[in-house]
Amino acid sequence: MPGSSAQRWRHALVVVWTCAIVIFMYLPALCLLLASLTSSRYFIFPITRWGVDWWHKTFDSIEIRQLFETSILIALCVTAVSVVIAFFGALAFARYNWRGRSIYQKIVLLPIFFPQSVLGLALLLWFNALGLELSWRTGVLAHLVWIVPVATLVISIQVYSFDPALEEAAFDLGATRWQVFREVTLPVLFPGIFSGALFSFLLSWGNFPLSLFTTGADNTIPKYLYAKMVAGYTPGVPVLGTVSTFGAALLLLIGYAVILVLRRRHSDAVTEE
Amino acid sequence: MSDESTTGRKSILQLRQLTKSFGNFTAVDRVDLDIAEGEFFTIVGPSGSGKTTLLRMLTGMETPSSGDILLHGERINDLPANRRPTCMVFQSLALFPHRTVGQNIEFPLKIRGVDAASRKKRALQLLEQLRLPETYYSKNVTKCSGGERQRVALARALAYNPEILFFDEPLSAIDYKLRKTLEKELKDIHRETGKTFIYITHSLEEAMVMSDRIGVMRAGHLVQVGTPNEIYTAPRSKFVSEFIGDVNVIAVQTQADGQLHAAEFGTSFVPPRLPNGFTSGHLVVRPEFLRFLDRPDSAINCLEGRLYNEYALGSRIQYQVRVGEHVFIVEKLRQQAFGGQRDDAVLIGWDAKDSILVAE
Prior knowledge:
CATH architecture of chain A: Orthogonal Bundle
Number of helices of chain A: 11
Mean pLDDT of chain B: 91
Oligomer: heterodimer
Distance between the termini of chain A: 52 Å
Distance between the termini of chain B: 23 Å
Low-confidence stretches of chain A: none
Strand content of chain B: 25-35%
Structural class of chain B: alpha+beta
Radius of gyration of chain B: 24 Å
Strand order of the largest sheet of chain B: 6-7-8-3-9-10
């Protein structure tokens, strides 16, 4: 058959290319894991003495535990605040037609494209000017400046596919404004809100440039990793990096699973009888 | 304008000089209308004619700029949609995608605080009434077919137990065959429930099938209200006559001998009964009343033209005949097909009683 060998070639090329991309993207994370599994003090490839000593050391450290606590605290605060702001922002963004909407849409997205280190520096100057003491709290504010626009965009996608007639129908069927919100708007938009929350948490969790400038003496994991890389490297750095990376991935997978379970439960209710 | 509608029943809904403007644009302009209890009333109009705005005012989703809406004689202009005893089936149906068929139907009952057992009982009754299997109670509403979704939306509206049901072109996105079935079903449901149905559509054909009365809207005005038969046989304007489908329209004016002069053809026609004070307007001849003639004198009105085109329309065949620049449409049943060839010179004509004279 003419052409079939050409087709095979094309198929092989697609497979090779895809694998190459995947390896290119995930190899660094894997290297991080490998670098943490050494018993030596320094970073040497190939690894001569394998071991999990540094994992023990890292998890036993009170300093590291505090890092986790600060990072999680910041991320949770950012998530809570940004979801509320972004939800209503997204309704204004994607739902209602009002004068100045188009300008609002552009302005609200602009901070996403600011270089984060510059944004961090600018915020640092502002916090100083306002006389705010730098701590994890100012870090939360800084993260919000960048993360609220992202969460707004994520939730907007869900809002765009929301038929406003659903709310009108509920209202027409006797529901009060609050019942419409609770029974229709919120549950229908929930997947978007959930994604927005996940985005907010993970972007805050992994953020370095904003934290560097604005959390003052409170250390977050990315900040700590950077400091240790600059001076005082131990294999504790890749351990922490691995935990941070795989933790984020795990959270994402759990989030995905939650969405799937919700969907499944819905269709189960459907096939029960 | 009387309180009794043409059907002789008590009127449930009355519109008085109802108007809605958006800025300088008047979407609905001084509409007066009485709708009788239990009536199936359809508002027909092209897009932009104001029919949707009118309906939204009736449901309470839009506030009138002026004029009144009276329900049982009481002004309800300012009553919000959730407190009106009326309910609408939306064009998009607006079924709640996160709920099952049963939950969708039970929604208005749940809002009213009806207990779960009674809700389910009612939902199952409605499923039966709408010819949906009982098992659909727990079916995912997004997995229903187009026709099933129509029925669920109607069941949900009926669960609200409204005095008036509104329909905003719910059948417009459905394919032809299913639409025809659903139209008839809707008419059955109307008879079974005895409720007042107010339906809007851009299709006069759809309106004809279902309605007791039809109101035709154009540019914010209700230009004619009547039974389907009245709208079909006695349209009051060129606009209404053309809305039903292909018609032949000739601009005419009266002349001294009582005949109608058609400047376009340089000839005159014998009119049906001339209305008082008629001076100029349009003569309308439906394609099924236009005939091919053997001799000029076999119909009272006659024109000579050329056979221009021929289309098979299923049970009928449509012919286009050119007279000068004007294209006339003639329709014949398939069994009575006309044997002419393209570009043949033909005579077409009609009897005076088969034409309609409209002033506009």
